[in-house]
Amino acid sequence: AQSVTQLDSHVSVSEGTPVLLRCNYSSSYSPSLFWYVQHPNKGLQLLLKYTSAATLVKGINGFEAEFKKSETSFHLTKPSAHMSDAAEYFCVVSDRRRDDKIIFGKGTRLHILP
Amino acid sequence: DAGVIQSPRHEVTEMGQEVTLRCKPISGHNSLFWYRQTMMRGLELLIYFNNNVPIDDSGMPEDRFSAKMPNASFSTLKIQPSEPRDSAVYFCASSLRRGGLEADTQYFGPGTRLTVL
């Protein structure tokens, strides 16, 4: 069965330093992978999406993620954190070869320290 | 585009009352999803529709919950009777389902925050 694991429930970084949010997935085939961001009291917004084209995916607000099949990972990174990046981030996996289920991770809350 | 529209944005009701949440998907989208988000359980998929037909309702907690999609531009999620444990934020999302193996991007509404006293 498909699954997705976000390895950290909370991450704190200082403004201006790099961000790394970790995500590992389990899927028998070639999955589609997403990162969504949720700011306080808001809905989820798509950050980026991987669908078997380039393994390095660039998203909005300077975020990017790299698909590593050998490590079954899809970690989200940003070179320099901004205060406005404080939010909850969800890693999502879907594998239409298997079924139509879309599996959300439990989320990682990113805190930005001034 | 107005995005996914949900109403009401906040609902406070008393235990035992009927609650109806509403969703208008993005025009042209053919799939619609209802989610529930709580601190304890995170984001849970309740039900999803494709072309107005319920495809998977395995996430609906119990018979007190029901969802309908009478047409492509409107869906409701009803809880009757409501209980305090139903307190959560309920999100509606829509997507354009295409053929092929690529998963579709879901677009989320702002959510309805439900409080059952």
Which tags fit this structure?
heterodimer, A: 114 residues, mainly beta, 4-stranded antiparallel β-sheet, 12 strands, B: 117 residues, 11 strands, 53% strand
SSE order and pairing:
The complex is a heterodimer of chains A (114) and B (117).
Chain A: E1 3-6, E2 10-14, E3 19-21, E4 23-26, E5 32-38, E6 44-50, E7 56-58, E8 64-68, E9 73-78, E10 87-94, E11 102-104, E12 108-113
Chain B: E1 5-7, E2 10-13, E3 19-24, E4 31-38, E5 42-50, E6 53-56, E7 65-71, E8 74-79, E9 88-95, E10 107-108, E11 112-116
Parallel strand pairs in B: 2-11
Antiparallel strand pairs in B: 1-3, 3-8, 4-5, 4-9, 5-6, 7-8, 9-10, 9-11
Would you mind describing this structure in some detail?
The complex is a heterodimer of chains A (114) and B (117). Chain A has 114 residues and is mainly beta. Chain A is 0% helix and 54% strand. The mean pLDDT of chain B is 92. The radius of gyration of chain B is 14 Å and the shape is globular. Chain B has strands at residues 5-7, 10-13, 19-24, 31-38, 42-50, 53-56, 65-71, 74-79, 88-95, 107-108, 112-116. The termini of chain B are far apart. Chain B contains no helices and 11 strands. The relative contact order of chain B is 0.33. In chain B, strands 2, 4, 5, 6, 9, 10 and 11 form a 7-stranded mixed beta sheet that branches. A 4-stranded antiparallel beta sheet of chain B has the order 1-3-8-7, with no helix packed on it. Chain B is mostly beta strands and 117 residues long. At the A-B interface, β5 and β6 of A face β5 and β10 of B.
